[in-house]
Amino acid sequence: MGWQKEVIMDQVAKNDEIHRLRSRFIPQGHTSLHPRYVVSAQGAVIRDVEGREYINFNAGIGVMNVGHRHPRVVAAIRADGLKSLGR
């Protein structure tokens, strides 16, 4: 699936274009009102496919507590994942 995402992102660079493509396959919901497609996030800041940066006021409680990609959370997930794989 990762390669498919990369191919789509290479072909489609704008939020509106991605939203049109998404609408062909995924039912509309409350998150469809202001479509922004995030390519990266760090702390409270997210960046969309057009390079715009936003402060994330819409995140769930986990993100609100520690931010996106908090180093200690990433390390714990990585360690737990490796443990579950027997490494």
Task: Give the tags.
87 residues; alpha+beta; Aspartate Aminotransferase, domain 1; three-stranded antiparallel beta sheet; 4 helices; 47% helix; 14% strand; extended
Descriptive overview:
There is one protein chain. The protein is of the alpha+beta class and 87 residues long. It has a single domain (2-84), classed as Aspartate Aminotransferase, domain 1 (Alpha-Beta Complex), CATH 3.90.1150. The chain is built from 4 helices and 3 strands; from the N terminus they run ααβββαα. The chain has helices spanning 2-11, 15-25, 61-66, 71-84, and strands spanning 38-42, 45-48, 53-55. A 3-stranded antiparallel β-sheet has the order 1-2-3, with no helix packed on it. Strand 1 (38-42) and strand 2 (45-48) form a beta hairpin. The radius of gyration is 16 Å and the shape is extended. The mean pLDDT is 77.
User: How would you describe the shape?
Assistant: extended
Residues in helices, as a percent range: 40-55%
Q: What is the H/E order? A: HHEEEHH
- CATH fold-level label: Aspartate Aminotransferase, domain 1
In the predicted model, the low-confidence regions spanning at least 5 consecutive residues are none
Would you summarize the structure shown here?
It is built from four helices and three strands, in the order ααβββαα.
Layout: helices, strands, pairs:
Layout: H1 2-11, H2 15-25, E1 38-42, E2 45-48, E3 53-55, H3 61-66, H4 71-84
Antiparallel strand pairs: 1-2, 2-3
